[in-house]
Structures are given as structure tokens and as C-alpha cells.
Amino acid sequence: MIVFLDTSTILAACWSAKGLSRLLIKCAATENWTLVTADYCVSEVEKNVHKHRAGAADWRSVVHPRIKSVGSVYVIDRPIVFDATKDRPVILSAIGSNAEYLVTSDTTDFSHVLGTVVYGVNIRTPKAFLLEMGIVE
Predict the structure, then answer these.
(1) Which helix (H) or strand (E) covers residue 102, if one does?
(2) Which domains does the chain have, with CATH numbers?
(3) ∠ CA 58-40-96 to the nearest 5 degrees?
(4) How far is CA 41 from CA 52, 70, 79, 133, 136, in A?
(5) pLDDT for 51-77, tens place per residue?
(6) What is the C-alpha separation between 19 and 134, in angstroms, rounded?
(7) Which residues contact residue 94 at a Cβ distance below 8 angstroms, ignoring those fewer than 6 apart?
(8) Which residues are paired to 5 by β-bridges?
(9) C-beta neighbour count of 106 within 10 angstroms
(10) Which residues contact 73 (CB under 8 A, 6 or more apart)?
């Protein structure tokens, strides 16, 4: 199963070794999840990961090696209404990568699509995703 991670989820995984985002990344191999993100998100992570003391080290050693980077998608041949311009490439790249899930910690910009399916991609928070997968209760 392909699981697309956005910038907010990746940063949360870098900044907290005990959080749900890190748990998702740790469980990926045993659960046969292929973790992907857009090169756009990788760029955003690398700009912001240093804001937390341990973030950069964990990005390089723990998080980044477990995530496959895919090209960013900026246009699709279907209509999509998404107000947050900076997040359009995220949802479009998730669709373009054939992800089954887009996992985001950005509950503000993605609030209108959380818990829904957009062109075959389930949009979930890390907690909702892990609950759905039976990893946490």
C-alpha cells in the first residue's frame, strides 16, 4: 500500500521520537506500507527541520531513509477545489503517485478534506490512519 506523507507529518516524525508520526514511519516496513512524499515536501522539510534541536539528525538517520521521494505534481486532468495554494502540490502529488492514503498533520489547511476520499486517496491524520490500520486504539 502506498502512503503519501506531507511536510507536516514528516516534520512531526523528525521532531518527536515518541509521536504518532514517528510510529507510522517505524511500522511501515512490517506493515508493507511504501512511504512516499513529493520532492516539494522534501524541500520544505529541509528548510524547516532545523527548528527543533534533534530534527535534522533524525531526518537524516531515521526518517528520510524510509521515505521514497516522487516528483511533484502541479496539474491534473480533473477539477479540484483546494484553497491553500501551497498545499495543492501535496494533494495533487498524492493523487499522481497512486497513493491509497495521504497522511497530514495539517488540520487547518486540510480540514475540509480530512476523513474523506479525493480521487481515490484517503485523507487522514496520523492518528486516524493508525487507528484505521489497527496499530493504535
Answers:
(1) strand 101-103
(2) 2-132 (3.40.50.1010)
(3) 115
(4) 17, 10, 22, 24, 26
(5) 988 889 999 999 999 999 997 665 555
(6) 16
(7) 4, 6, 102, 121
(8) 103
(9) 17
(10) 38, 89, 92, 93, 95, 96, 97
